[in-house]
Amino acid sequence: MATKLKAFVQLVLVVAAIVVTALVGGGAEAVVLCNTDSTKLNLCRAAVTGNQPPPPTEACCAVIRHANLPCLCKYKSVLPTLGIDPKNALALPSKCGLRSPQCPGN
């Protein structure tokens, strides 16, 4: 039980850091999340929001190529709170020519 609580608290702190980074913009310190600078993840925002998002840009795909994709699975459940459709997010690697991670619960 304590391990789950600790993991949940860590997740909340990471998500809070990402939200603050997104709100404050360029003046905020980046958070490294799953081997990726959190500010660079914003390059993929258009490709994961809305009903029919546009294809990812080459800049977005470059970010995804360097990310630890299985690690990003851990944050799947919080994506809707950030306005991100989890299905779009999980489809992003394949749209960039990469193998999609096998996230638990898919």
UniProtKB/TrEMBL annotation:
InterPro entries: Bifun_inhib/LTP/seed_sf, Bifunc_inhib/LTP/seed_store, DIR1-like, NsLTP-like. It holds the Pfam family LTP_2. This is Putative lipid-transfer protein DIR1. Residues 34-103 form the Bifunctional inhibitor/plant lipid transfer protein/seed storage helical domain. PANTHER family: BIFUNCTIONAL INHIBITOR_PLANT LIPID TRANSFER PROTEIN_SEED STORAGE HELICAL DOMAIN-CONTAINING PROTEIN (PTHR33122:SF43), LIPID BINDING PROTEIN-RELATED (PTHR33122). One of its GO terms (biological process) is systemic acquired resistance. Residues 1-30 form the signal peptide. Keywords: Signal. Gene3D superfamilies: Plant lipid-transfer and hydrophobic proteins. GO terms for molecular function: fatty acid binding.
